[in-house]
TrEMBL record:
Magnesium found in the keyword field: no
Pfam families in UniProt: Fung_rhodopsin
Name of this chain's protein: Rhodopsin domain-containing protein
Record-annotated membrane-spanning stretches: 35-57, 69-93, 113-136, 148-169, 189-214, 226-246
Highest taxon listed in the record's lineage: Eukaryota
PANTHER family, A to Z: INTEGRAL MEMBRANE PROTEIN, PTH11-LIKE INTEGRAL MEMBRANE PROTEIN (AFU_ORTHOLOGUE AFUA_5G11245)
Keyword set, alphabetical order: Membrane, Transmembrane, Transmembrane helix
Keyword Transmembrane: yes
Upper classification of the organism: Eukaryota, Fungi, Dikarya, Ascomycota, Pezizomycotina
Family: Belongs to the SAT4 family.
Subcellular location: Membrane
Domain Rhodopsin: 53-290
Organism per entry: Periconia macrospinosa
Amino acid sequence: MYSPIISLREENVGVIPPPPGVTPNFINPPSRQHIILITNIILPLVSLLFATLRLYTTGIITRSVGSDDYMIALSWLLACASSSIQCLLTRYGAGLHLWDVPFSTFNVHFFKLGAIAGTFYGLSIMFSKLSILVLLLRYLPQKPKKAIYTTMVVVILYSLITSFVWLYACQPIEKYWDLSITRGSCIKWTTVFVSSGVMNTVTDSVILLLPIFMLRKVRLPRWEKIGLVLVMMTGGFVLVISIIRLKTSVDMASNPDIAWESACIGIWMNIEQHTAIVCACLPVGKAFIRKHFPCVVDYTFNNFGTCGEDNGGFRGLRAT
Protein backbone atom coordinates (compact mmCIF):
# COMPACT_ATOMS: atom_id res chain seq x y z
CA MET A 1 0.00 0.00 0.00
CA TYR A 2 1.12 3.56 -0.59
CA SER A 3 1.25 6.37 1.96
CA PRO A 4 0.55 10.07 1.28
CA ILE A 5 3.45 12.48 1.58
CA ILE A 6 1.60 15.27 3.36
CA SER A 7 -1.59 16.02 5.27
CA LEU A 8 -4.74 14.14 4.39
CA ARG A 9 -6.66 17.42 4.65
CA GLU A 10 -5.05 18.81 1.51
CA GLU A 11 -7.46 18.63 -1.41
CA ASN A 12 -4.94 19.72 -4.05
CA VAL A 13 -2.16 17.25 -3.26
CA GLY A 14 -1.77 14.03 -5.18
CA VAL A 15 -1.55 10.59 -3.66
CA ILE A 16 2.15 10.33 -4.58
CA PRO A 17 4.61 13.02 -5.66
CA PRO A 18 5.07 13.43 -9.43
CA PRO A 19 8.27 12.40 -11.22
CA PRO A 20 10.94 15.09 -11.58
CA GLY A 21 9.90 17.75 -14.06
CA VAL A 22 6.20 16.78 -14.01
CA THR A 23 3.57 19.16 -12.66
CA PRO A 24 0.38 17.69 -11.16
CA ASN A 25 -2.73 18.45 -13.17
CA PHE A 26 -6.03 18.25 -11.30
CA ILE A 27 -8.09 20.00 -14.00
CA ASN A 28 -7.43 18.16 -17.27
CA PRO A 29 -4.90 15.39 -16.62
CA PRO A 30 -3.76 12.65 -19.03
CA SER A 31 -6.38 9.94 -18.87
CA ARG A 32 -7.20 6.35 -19.83
CA GLN A 33 -10.67 6.62 -18.40
CA HIS A 34 -12.40 6.70 -21.78
CA ILE A 35 -10.91 3.26 -22.56
CA ILE A 36 -12.21 1.89 -19.25
CA LEU A 37 -15.70 3.20 -19.93
CA ILE A 38 -15.85 2.01 -23.54
CA THR A 39 -14.70 -1.54 -22.79
CA ASN A 40 -17.00 -1.83 -19.79
CA ILE A 41 -19.98 -0.85 -21.91
CA ILE A 42 -19.29 -2.77 -25.12
CA LEU A 43 -18.05 -6.09 -23.72
CA PRO A 44 -21.07 -6.76 -21.45
CA LEU A 45 -23.30 -6.23 -24.49
CA VAL A 46 -21.26 -8.69 -26.54
CA SER A 47 -21.33 -11.36 -23.82
CA LEU A 48 -25.06 -10.70 -23.30
CA LEU A 49 -25.67 -11.51 -26.97
CA PHE A 50 -23.92 -14.88 -26.69
CA ALA A 51 -25.49 -15.71 -23.33
CA THR A 52 -28.94 -14.89 -24.73
CA LEU A 53 -28.33 -17.07 -27.79
CA ARG A 54 -27.20 -19.89 -25.51
CA LEU A 55 -30.29 -19.68 -23.30
CA TYR A 56 -32.51 -19.40 -26.38
CA THR A 57 -30.86 -22.49 -27.84
CA THR A 58 -31.09 -24.65 -24.73
CA GLY A 59 -34.47 -23.32 -23.67
CA ILE A 60 -36.33 -23.18 -27.00
CA ILE A 61 -34.48 -25.25 -29.59
CA THR A 62 -33.11 -28.23 -27.67
CA ARG A 63 -35.26 -27.82 -24.53
CA SER A 64 -32.41 -29.00 -22.35
CA VAL A 65 -31.66 -26.21 -19.89
CA GLY A 66 -29.17 -27.42 -17.30
CA SER A 67 -27.21 -26.17 -14.32
CA ASP A 68 -24.42 -25.01 -16.64
CA ASP A 69 -26.86 -22.56 -18.27
CA TYR A 70 -27.79 -21.08 -14.91
CA MET A 71 -24.08 -20.76 -14.13
CA ILE A 72 -23.54 -18.76 -17.32
CA ALA A 73 -26.42 -16.45 -16.46
CA LEU A 74 -24.97 -15.91 -12.98
CA SER A 75 -21.49 -15.41 -14.44
CA TRP A 76 -22.83 -12.69 -16.73
CA LEU A 77 -24.57 -10.88 -13.87
CA LEU A 78 -21.39 -10.95 -11.79
CA ALA A 79 -19.30 -9.76 -14.75
CA CYS A 80 -21.69 -6.86 -15.29
CA ALA A 81 -21.46 -5.95 -11.61
CA SER A 82 -17.67 -5.95 -11.90
CA SER A 83 -17.81 -3.83 -15.06
CA SER A 84 -20.17 -1.34 -13.42
CA ILE A 85 -17.85 -0.89 -10.45
CA GLN A 86 -14.86 -0.44 -12.76
CA CYS A 87 -16.75 2.42 -14.41
CA LEU A 88 -17.51 3.88 -10.98
CA LEU A 89 -13.80 3.68 -10.09
CA THR A 90 -13.07 6.37 -12.68
CA ARG A 91 -14.63 8.83 -10.24
CA TYR A 92 -11.94 7.98 -7.73
CA GLY A 93 -8.85 8.04 -9.91
CA ALA A 94 -8.81 4.90 -12.04
CA GLY A 95 -7.13 5.68 -15.35
CA LEU A 96 -5.27 8.74 -14.02
CA HIS A 97 -1.73 9.18 -12.75
CA LEU A 98 -1.69 9.08 -8.96
CA TRP A 99 -0.02 12.49 -8.73
CA ASP A 100 -3.04 13.92 -10.59
CA VAL A 101 -5.54 12.41 -8.12
CA PRO A 102 -6.27 14.26 -4.84
CA PHE A 103 -5.62 12.02 -1.87
CA SER A 104 -9.05 12.76 -0.38
CA THR A 105 -10.66 11.52 -3.60
CA PHE A 106 -8.56 8.39 -3.87
CA ASN A 107 -8.27 7.17 -0.29
CA VAL A 108 -10.68 4.46 0.93
CA HIS A 109 -12.92 4.61 -2.17
CA PHE A 110 -10.42 3.26 -4.71
CA PHE A 111 -9.31 0.12 -2.89
CA LYS A 112 -12.67 -0.63 -1.29
CA LEU A 113 -14.49 -0.52 -4.63
CA GLY A 114 -11.57 -2.32 -6.26
CA ALA A 115 -11.94 -5.16 -3.76
CA ILE A 116 -15.64 -5.52 -4.57
CA ALA A 117 -14.97 -5.45 -8.32
CA GLY A 118 -12.25 -8.09 -7.89
CA THR A 119 -14.63 -10.31 -5.93
CA PHE A 120 -17.28 -10.14 -8.65
CA TYR A 121 -14.63 -10.75 -11.33
CA GLY A 122 -13.26 -13.84 -9.58
CA LEU A 123 -16.70 -15.33 -9.02
CA SER A 124 -17.71 -14.63 -12.63
CA ILE A 125 -14.64 -16.46 -13.94
CA MET A 126 -15.35 -19.32 -11.54
CA PHE A 127 -18.91 -19.85 -12.75
CA SER A 128 -17.84 -19.61 -16.41
CA LYS A 129 -15.29 -22.37 -15.91
CA LEU A 130 -17.66 -24.51 -13.87
CA SER A 131 -20.24 -24.18 -16.64
CA ILE A 132 -17.77 -25.54 -19.19
CA LEU A 133 -16.72 -28.39 -16.89
CA VAL A 134 -20.34 -29.36 -16.19
CA LEU A 135 -20.95 -29.42 -19.94
CA LEU A 136 -17.95 -31.71 -20.42
CA LEU A 137 -19.10 -33.91 -17.57
CA ARG A 138 -22.62 -34.32 -18.89
CA TYR A 139 -22.32 -34.52 -22.63
CA LEU A 140 -19.01 -35.80 -23.93
CA PRO A 141 -19.00 -39.48 -24.95
CA GLN A 142 -16.21 -40.43 -22.54
CA LYS A 143 -16.20 -39.08 -19.02
CA PRO A 144 -13.00 -39.11 -16.96
CA LYS A 145 -15.03 -37.97 -13.98
CA LYS A 146 -12.11 -37.81 -11.58
CA ALA A 147 -10.20 -35.36 -13.80
CA ILE A 148 -13.24 -33.13 -14.24
CA TYR A 149 -14.26 -33.21 -10.57
CA THR A 150 -10.69 -32.49 -9.51
CA THR A 151 -10.52 -29.51 -11.85
CA MET A 152 -13.85 -28.25 -10.51
CA VAL A 153 -12.64 -28.46 -6.91
CA VAL A 154 -9.42 -26.63 -7.78
CA VAL A 155 -11.35 -23.91 -9.63
CA ILE A 156 -13.72 -23.38 -6.70
CA LEU A 157 -11.00 -23.30 -4.04
CA TYR A 158 -8.57 -20.93 -5.73
CA SER A 159 -11.41 -18.71 -7.01
CA LEU A 160 -12.83 -18.24 -3.53
CA ILE A 161 -9.39 -17.62 -2.04
CA THR A 162 -8.42 -14.98 -4.62
CA SER A 163 -11.89 -13.41 -4.86
CA PHE A 164 -12.01 -12.67 -1.15
CA VAL A 165 -8.32 -11.86 -0.70
CA TRP A 166 -9.24 -8.51 0.90
CA LEU A 167 -10.62 -10.39 3.92
CA TYR A 168 -7.19 -11.63 4.98
CA ALA A 169 -4.67 -9.57 2.99
CA CYS A 170 -4.10 -6.95 5.69
CA GLN A 171 -4.13 -6.76 9.46
CA PRO A 172 -6.14 -4.78 10.42
CA ILE A 173 -8.50 -5.35 7.49
CA GLU A 174 -9.10 -1.59 7.06
CA LYS A 175 -5.46 -1.18 6.06
CA TYR A 176 -6.39 -2.76 2.71
CA TRP A 177 -8.26 0.36 1.59
CA ASP A 178 -7.29 3.14 4.03
CA LEU A 179 -3.84 4.54 3.30
CA SER A 180 -3.88 6.67 6.44
CA ILE A 181 -3.49 3.53 8.60
CA THR A 182 0.20 3.02 9.22
CA ARG A 183 0.02 0.22 11.78
CA GLY A 184 -0.24 -3.43 10.87
CA SER A 185 0.95 -5.17 7.70
CA CYS A 186 -0.21 -6.56 4.36
CA ILE A 187 0.84 -9.56 2.32
CA LYS A 188 2.94 -9.05 -0.81
CA TRP A 189 0.71 -8.04 -3.69
CA THR A 190 3.05 -9.56 -6.26
CA THR A 191 2.40 -12.98 -4.73
CA VAL A 192 -1.37 -12.48 -4.93
CA PHE A 193 -1.32 -11.29 -8.55
CA VAL A 194 1.02 -14.01 -9.75
CA SER A 195 -0.75 -16.81 -7.86
CA SER A 196 -4.15 -15.81 -9.21
CA GLY A 197 -2.85 -15.42 -12.76
CA VAL A 198 -0.97 -18.72 -12.69
CA MET A 199 -4.00 -20.65 -11.42
CA ASN A 200 -6.23 -19.05 -14.05
CA THR A 201 -3.75 -19.99 -16.76
CA VAL A 202 -3.34 -23.57 -15.50
CA THR A 203 -7.07 -24.25 -15.27
CA ASP A 204 -7.68 -22.64 -18.67
CA SER A 205 -5.04 -24.99 -20.11
CA VAL A 206 -6.70 -28.00 -18.51
CA ILE A 207 -10.12 -27.00 -19.85
CA LEU A 208 -8.60 -26.51 -23.30
CA LEU A 209 -6.93 -29.94 -23.36
CA LEU A 210 -9.58 -32.08 -21.64
CA PRO A 211 -11.73 -32.57 -24.79
CA ILE A 212 -8.70 -33.82 -26.75
CA PHE A 213 -7.99 -36.57 -24.23
CA MET A 214 -11.67 -37.37 -23.78
CA LEU A 215 -12.31 -37.79 -27.50
CA ARG A 216 -9.07 -39.38 -28.65
CA LYS A 217 -10.55 -42.91 -28.60
CA VAL A 218 -13.99 -42.03 -29.92
CA ARG A 219 -14.64 -43.60 -33.32
CA LEU A 220 -16.09 -40.93 -35.60
CA PRO A 221 -15.52 -39.77 -39.19
CA ARG A 222 -12.43 -37.57 -39.39
CA TRP A 223 -14.13 -34.25 -40.13
CA GLU A 224 -16.85 -34.94 -37.61
CA LYS A 225 -14.31 -35.71 -34.89
CA ILE A 226 -12.22 -32.62 -35.70
CA GLY A 227 -15.33 -30.46 -35.59
CA LEU A 228 -16.43 -31.96 -32.29
CA VAL A 229 -13.03 -31.42 -30.67
CA LEU A 230 -12.82 -27.81 -31.89
CA VAL A 231 -16.30 -27.00 -30.64
CA MET A 232 -15.68 -28.48 -27.20
CA MET A 233 -12.28 -26.77 -26.93
CA THR A 234 -13.72 -23.29 -27.39
CA GLY A 235 -14.15 -22.95 -23.63
CA GLY A 236 -10.38 -22.86 -23.22
CA PHE A 237 -9.61 -20.23 -25.84
CA VAL A 238 -9.61 -17.58 -23.11
CA LEU A 239 -6.18 -18.99 -22.18
CA VAL A 240 -4.32 -16.42 -24.30
CA ILE A 241 -6.12 -13.54 -22.60
CA SER A 242 -5.44 -15.10 -19.22
CA ILE A 243 -1.71 -15.16 -19.97
CA ILE A 244 -1.76 -11.49 -21.07
CA ARG A 245 -3.65 -10.55 -17.92
CA LEU A 246 -1.05 -12.40 -15.83
CA LYS A 247 1.82 -10.48 -17.43
CA THR A 248 -0.04 -7.18 -16.96
CA SER A 249 -0.63 -7.98 -13.28
CA VAL A 250 3.04 -8.78 -12.69
CA ASP A 251 4.14 -5.57 -14.41
CA MET A 252 1.70 -3.50 -12.35
CA ALA A 253 2.76 -5.01 -9.03
CA SER A 254 6.10 -3.14 -9.08
CA ASN A 255 4.71 0.20 -10.27
CA PRO A 256 3.56 2.68 -7.58
CA ASP A 257 1.35 4.53 -10.12
CA ILE A 258 -1.41 2.00 -9.55
CA ALA A 259 -4.36 4.16 -10.62
CA TRP A 260 -2.84 4.55 -14.10
CA GLU A 261 -1.71 0.93 -14.36
CA SER A 262 -4.99 -0.37 -12.97
CA ALA A 263 -6.65 0.81 -16.17
CA CYS A 264 -4.68 -1.77 -18.17
CA ILE A 265 -5.22 -4.64 -15.77
CA GLY A 266 -8.88 -3.70 -15.34
CA ILE A 267 -9.39 -3.72 -19.10
CA TRP A 268 -7.76 -7.14 -19.46
CA MET A 269 -9.76 -8.49 -16.52
CA ASN A 270 -12.89 -7.21 -18.21
CA ILE A 271 -11.91 -8.78 -21.53
CA GLU A 272 -11.10 -12.05 -19.76
CA GLN A 273 -14.37 -12.39 -17.86
CA HIS A 274 -16.61 -11.53 -20.82
CA THR A 275 -14.57 -13.62 -23.25
CA ALA A 276 -14.89 -16.54 -20.82
CA ILE A 277 -18.67 -16.19 -21.03
CA VAL A 278 -18.57 -16.07 -24.83
CA CYS A 279 -16.31 -19.14 -24.99
CA ALA A 280 -18.54 -21.03 -22.58
CA CYS A 281 -21.52 -20.35 -24.85
CA LEU A 282 -19.89 -21.48 -28.12
CA PRO A 283 -20.09 -25.27 -27.59
CA VAL A 284 -23.91 -25.16 -27.72
CA GLY A 285 -23.93 -22.98 -30.83
CA LYS A 286 -24.28 -25.79 -33.35
CA ALA A 287 -27.95 -26.35 -32.53
CA PHE A 288 -28.69 -22.65 -33.11
CA ILE A 289 -26.83 -22.65 -36.44
CA ARG A 290 -28.47 -25.91 -37.53
CA LYS A 291 -31.88 -24.44 -36.77
CA HIS A 292 -31.40 -21.16 -38.60
CA PHE A 293 -28.44 -21.77 -40.94
CA PRO A 294 -28.45 -25.54 -41.65
CA CYS A 295 -26.10 -25.36 -44.65
CA VAL A 296 -23.30 -23.96 -42.47
CA VAL A 297 -23.38 -26.94 -40.10
CA ASP A 298 -23.68 -29.54 -42.85
CA TYR A 299 -20.81 -28.08 -44.83
CA THR A 300 -18.53 -27.52 -41.85
CA PHE A 301 -19.10 -30.48 -39.57
CA ASN A 302 -20.79 -33.25 -41.53
CA ASN A 303 -17.98 -33.99 -43.92
CA PHE A 304 -19.31 -31.56 -46.52
CA GLY A 305 -22.69 -33.31 -46.72
CA THR A 306 -25.82 -32.15 -48.55
CA CYS A 307 -27.51 -29.03 -47.22
CA GLY A 308 -30.22 -29.96 -44.74
CA GLU A 309 -28.99 -33.53 -44.36
CA ASP A 310 -28.19 -34.63 -40.81
CA ASN A 311 -25.30 -37.07 -40.86
CA GLY A 312 -25.53 -37.73 -37.17
CA GLY A 313 -22.79 -35.35 -36.00
CA PHE A 314 -22.49 -34.71 -32.27
CA ARG A 315 -24.87 -37.43 -31.26
CA GLY A 316 -25.33 -37.51 -27.52
CA LEU A 317 -24.38 -33.84 -27.12
CA ARG A 318 -26.78 -31.09 -26.22
CA ALA A 319 -25.24 -29.03 -29.05
CA THR A 320 -26.93 -31.28 -31.62
